[in-house]
Amino acid sequence: MTTLFHLPYVKIASTVTLLTSLVLFIGCEPSERETGVTYTIPEQPEMATGYTEKPGWATSEFAVAAANPLATDAGYQIIKAGGSAVDAAIAVQMVLTLVEPQSSGIGGGAFLLAWDGADVHAYNGRETAPAAADENHFLDEDGNPIPFRDAVRSGLSAGVPGTIAMLKHAHERHGILPWAELFTPAITLAEEGFNVSPRLHGLLAGEEALREDDIAAQLYYDENGEARPIGYNLQNPALAEILRQVALRGNEAFYTGAVAESIVERIRAHERPGNMTVEDINNYPNQDFTTEAMCNEWRAYRICGFPPPSSGHIAIMQMLGIMEHLEAPQAGFEDGTPTAEWLHQYLEAAKLAFADRNQYIADPNFVEAPAGDWQSLMNSDYLAERSLLIGENSMGSAEPGNPEDVLSLFGLMQEQPDKGTSHISIVDRDGNSVSMTTTIESGFGNRIMSDGGTGLPGGFLLNNELTDLSLRPYDDDGNPIANRVEPNKRPRSSMSPTLIFDNESGDFLASVGSPGGAAIIHYTAKAIVGMYDWGLNAQEAINVPNFSNFNGPSVLEEDRFSDDIIRALEAMGHEITERAQTSGLQAIQVTPEGLFGGADPRREGVVMGE
Ligand code: GLY
User: Fold this and answer.
1) Which residue's CA is the closest to the ligand 1 atom numbered 1?
2) Cβ proximity of 583 and 382 under 8 Å
3) Considering only Cβ atoms within 10 Å of each terminal Cβ, which end of the chain, N or C, has fewer?
4) The whole model's pTM is what?
């Protein structure tokens, strides 16, 4: 059980009473249809690496977009067999566990938004800290945080996995096909093998810590320590067996018995052991995964995203909202890139949003929203006030604001690296849609693999989601950091699964999201602006060069912006760093002709549909 602590906020004039509301949605009964999944392993043509132009995909009835062609195909075959968008998302996730193990899987957590034609439902499968975790979790004997890298690669960083239980809950509300059938593609591929992709090979080759895990070393490397080559037929018998059991027995097969025991044993056997217990895992499914989606107006649109513990939707709506209060530059987008004037406004708005994120956003079961409502951070008057801080030149870095004149007594969290993750967008034949972002956090998570107690080769990777909590519990002045480690707490996230609607008609317009750590927020914002401000289609919007700011120097995608733009930003006082910004955006939008999907040219994703 988590406890809601009434942590101190001070109204600048007086103390305020804070309330938290939880709206429970009642899902629809699964509809009855003639169904049956007959899975066929598709052709696996060799994929290219690096930036690969993608065409964009026009379909008329349904579309599935995921980070790997085999995962996309699994969702496609599930919808062909009569499945819903949520059914397809489950099949996609199970295949991603196998074929994109670096990014997400059953050892991690996820946020899912589902549109059923009437309501947006939000399901929170975020990992939780063990009951025995406390604010000293990542501190050494002198009370200092251990090195971040050591924290990631440890048993300490593993949160109790949430993906399976959350998907089971969502399936009970939105599923059409039987749960067990959704596992057929992943079980088949795990048994018969799949071709290692260039991206997986490259990441395995560059990875050191994974080789230290005996199960992972045997699965992903040969006897000389060489990464399995591109095209190698990789089988994962342990994962096939675990998924077979989960297909048959649901949560019980993962959250009790051999799998739960194996997770704990692996975490505790690490040289930096964690303190998760079997009881922590047993307890995870006993919660309500339903939360309330956050929907906010922006221009003619209603943008729906995930509430805290995600910081994604709030930051995106703050940035877009702040920019609405600024005089729009004469040109915002020219010759395939945003202009320097537009970038200046965006990057400054980003600093303001990230300052607030580091002050306020944490698990709402532990931390009150400022003024009792997270909407206070997106309130138009507040954003208007924040916009006044943006001038002609860069502000350097921003301080957090005081929404509704509330002064937070929390300390400011320092930025910590976070990466990895995968995004799934789906629209089914009924026009229902899913936007799901899913993660084991860092590339290959905490680099600990469990075979689920099967004794078979292979298994699944565990997450390092707890390093999304602040390693330091207090700031230099001794103020508690909102996102510090506490028992059973969910780490703050940047994941930004987003559904977009026409504000007037309520019609569904698009599903979008991305991996990329804190840059998820910027990648997703870019796609929204690209589609609904710059008039680009989903693929063109995804292709736009990436740009980010985390309340400091600005990061531009390397070799994608002209010298003129970089010089103009520097002249305004921006500190510019150019580097790869490997977004993994997936988007599906409704067009007058049907559906149009885009997948990021920087990764291996594709869209399929009919
Ligand atoms: N670990 C990625 C995120 O939740 O933002």
Assistant:
1) 441
2) no
3) N
4) 0.94
